[in-house]
Amino acid sequence: MDEREKQTLLRLALTGAEEVLPRQLALLGELCAQDSGTGLEAGNEAVRQLLRPLLEELGAQIEEVPAPGLGKHLVARVRPEGPVQGRVLLAAHLDTVFGLGAAAEYPFHVEGEWAWGLGAGDCKSGVLISLFGALILQKAGLLPPWELTYLFTCDEETGSQSGRELYRREAEGADCALVFEGGREREGQPCFVTGRRGVILGSIQVEGREAHAGKAYLEGRSAVLELAHQIIRLYGFNDLERGIYFNVAPISGGRPNGVVAGEARGEFCCAGIPENRDFAAIQEKLDAMAGQVTVDGCRVKVEYRTLFPAMEPGEANHRAWTLLEEPCRLLGLTAREISDPSATDGAYLSTFGVPTVDALSALAEDIHTTRERVSIPSIRQRTALCALTLGLLPRQKGALRNPCA
Fold it and tell me: H helices of 82-171, where?
């Protein structure tokens, strides 16, 4: 593709993004009107049904993957008519952090250049940007000779315990992954994420012995006191130099204060894990806590799970990031590659060996709060960017090859 053809593609992307914006906002409002918090199956069903006409318009083959107790993941494949020259995964999630009734209490609305709605920025605008970017090309007959595989999961907000298996399945044979989580920007220039830190969630459960806090105090074994020692031990695992942080909340335990507590519990998070090899050392420390009891007679149980692995920056993810350099140049922007301390399920695609770049969606503010909103100009810009990125894929195949392979 020469420069003249690129300029033609640029005009198509910009014009198309402008034309589809009203439709995007209308559909975003419908999506945000659904209570689709993780585990709200009726809301998940409603969101999937709202997306189905758009997927059918793209000519996608639709698969719904059951996730018991959560709803269904949505997989949609847009295949070229001729030979498939490559395969790109386009990932976003359908669930939010908000409970039943929240969407009606905080309805979607537009104020100036901002669209307000629960889940608007995380991650429903990303779903729409990924779809309308392809639709712009499809209307012009310019979809790449690649398979576009859309992965819209329903449990990202709780760590993709079901969705990760879908990612594992779809990672096989994929050339790259574009993840449409919330966008990043520095000094007016777009930043795309090729590194994120991992997270562990867990709980400490302590069993003690109840006793009257006055006449039988010495017969008791305070689970609350033991939990306090365990919490201090946990905070001692902090690695401030490397940015690995433990935090405990909430905590509970005991009955009235006239009774020595017979049980106590605390939940914890370990965030900022920079490399996947760090997980083993952290897990070893957590496993040892049950044997480090300070209050004689108490029993300690520590349970934990990986919420997200680390998305390790490296050559593979950098190659995925280079796919955005030329589209950004055409838009008059300079793409920046960054690492971000927050976690998303894009880390699973990266961990499963797919060159992955994240944060392709619009700019959002106050996600996970009732003030969540997304920038309308950035929806338009990122839709044009998506169309350009997909339109240039046939020219980018070489950029994804491992030079050491």
Answer: 102-105, 125-139, 163-171
Q: CB–CB of 247/268 below 8 Å? A: yes
Q: How far apart are CA 97 and CA 37, in angstroms?
A: 5
> Residue 268 in 3-state DSSP?
strand
User: Which structure tokens are listed for 241?
Assistant: 């130099």
Residues forming CATH 3.40.630.10 domain(s) in the chain: 3-195+311-400
Hey, what are 141's tokens?
């007959």
Give SS3 for 192: strand
Whole-structure pTM value: 0.93
Judge contact between 198 and 309, C-beta under 8 A: yes
Delimit the CATH 3.30.70.360 region(s) of the chain.
198-308
What CATH number does domain 3-195+311-400 carry, 3.40.1010.20, 3.30.470.20, 3.40.630.10, 3.30.499.10? Answer: 3.40.630.10
* pLDDT single digits (tens) 9-49: 999 999 999 999 999 999 999 999 999 999 999 999 999 99
Beta-carbon contacts of residue 350 (< 8 Å; ≥ 6 apart):
177, 311, 312, 316, 317, 356
Burial of 69 (0-12, 13-18, 19+ CB in 10 A): exposed
**Residue 289 · residue 300 · CB < 8 Å:** yes
Q: Rounded mean pLDDT of the chain?
A: 96
Average pLDDT over residues 186-202: 96
DSSP class of residue 397? G
Pick the CATH number of 198-308 from 3.40.190.10, 3.90.170.10, 3.40.50.360, 3.30.70.360: 3.30.70.360
Residues 196-234 have pLDDT tens digits of 999 999 999 999 999 999 999 999 999 999 999 999 999
